[in-house]
Every structure is written in structure tokens, then in C-alpha cells.
Amino acid sequence: MMKPFKLFLALVACVLLLNPAMGADTTIVFVDLDKAFNEYYKTKLADSQLKEQAEEFNSERKKLVEVYEGLQEEFNKLREDSANPGLTEEARTDLRNQAEEKLIELRDQEQKIRRFDETRRKQLEDQGRRMRKRIVDEIKEKVQTFARNQGYTAVIDTSGQSLNGVELVIYVDKKVDVTPSILELLNKGRE
Asked: Which residues pair with 157 in a beta bridge?
């Protein structure tokens, strides 16, 4: 089985050498899509929006935890009081029953916090994934339009890695790296 890097090189060589329609006019350029994504102003706006939402969720969670801690204190006090030998057996039994009820409330609050954490984490992940996809799609569209307008034959992403974690593109001459032009285009409409 051919390694991904060798397969990539073989594919590029085949495209360049075997396709008679591609002559001297063939222009392949490179872009670092990771850099374009990270330096795009909309990415930074989306990140700050996600952070704000995470802070709101943390604030909500903090309130749930405060309720839990209050219940924990009440439970501990009832349990401690139910062991007081100075009280009648009936009073101690009543306090034990109250402690058991408080323990049930405590467990319910634990479950509520767990469900809250799971729900909010999933919401943030889903929203982050949707935002990322929308931004990546927008960047790809701009790169494609830019490449067509410039008459480029192909644009290759230099940020990709092989299965071994090695960069697929080891070297790119700055003359064929269009990342700065793409970043300028992307951030041109900055509000």
C-alpha cells in the first residue's frame, strides 16, 4: 500500500505530466488554510461568541452548584442533629427522615448538574462545529473564486498532514504561496 505522502506526490506528478490539456500555462499555488482560518476576523468573532456563551453556561452552573452545596450543608446538619443523644428517639427519627429526604434532593441536584453539563457541552460543541463549517465553507468559496479570477489551475492546502503527522507539503516558494492574498481578501470586509 502506498503511503499518503507518496500517493499525493504521484497524483500531482500524474496531473502535471500526463494531462495534455495542461501545458505551460499550468499554475499551481499553495495556501495555508489553517492560517487563513485562524487569522480570519470572523473566526475570532465566532470564538469570542462561543467564549461568552461558555461563560453564561458557567454562571448558570455555578448557581446549580450553590444550590447543591446548600443542600449538602442542610443534609450534614440534619444527619449530625439526628445523632444527638440529648434528643428523644422520636425527634432523632424525625431528623433522620428529614436527612433522607434531603439526601434524595441532593442526589436529584447532582443529576440536574450532570444533565446540565452534558446538554450545555453538546450545545457548545454543536454550535462550534456549525460555526467552523460555515467559516471554512466561506473561506473555500473565496479561495476558489480567487483562483478562478487569477487563472490558477489548482490550489493546494499546505496545512494538511499525512497519517504519520508529517506535513504533506514540505516546502513552498513564497512566490506561489497565496496565503497573504487570501487573508487580505478575507479580512477586506471587516466590520
From this structure: 31
Structure confidence at residue 111 (pLDDT)? 97
Tell me the per-residue pLDDT of 50-89, one tens digit each, with 9 for 90 and over.
999 999 999 999 999 999 999 999 999 999 998 888 888 9
Residue 161 per-residue DSSP state:
B
Give the DSSP letter string of 23-83.
Answer: -TT--EEEE-HHHHHHH-HHHHHHHHHHHHHHHHHHHHHHHHHHHHHHHHHHHHHHHHHHT
Map residue 152 onto helix, strand or coil. coil
CATH number at residue 67: 3.30.910.20
Cell reading at 84: 444527638
How do residues 124-141 score in pLDDT, each as one tens digit? 999 999 999 999 999 999
**How many separate domains does the chain show?**
1
If one counts every other C-beta atom within 10 angstroms of the C-beta of residue 3, the result is: 12
- Please, are residues 26 and 16 in contact by the beta-carbon 8 Å criterion? yes
Contact in structure between 41 and 190 (CB atoms under 8 Å): yes
Q: Which residue segment(s) compose the domain that 122 sits in? A: 4-187
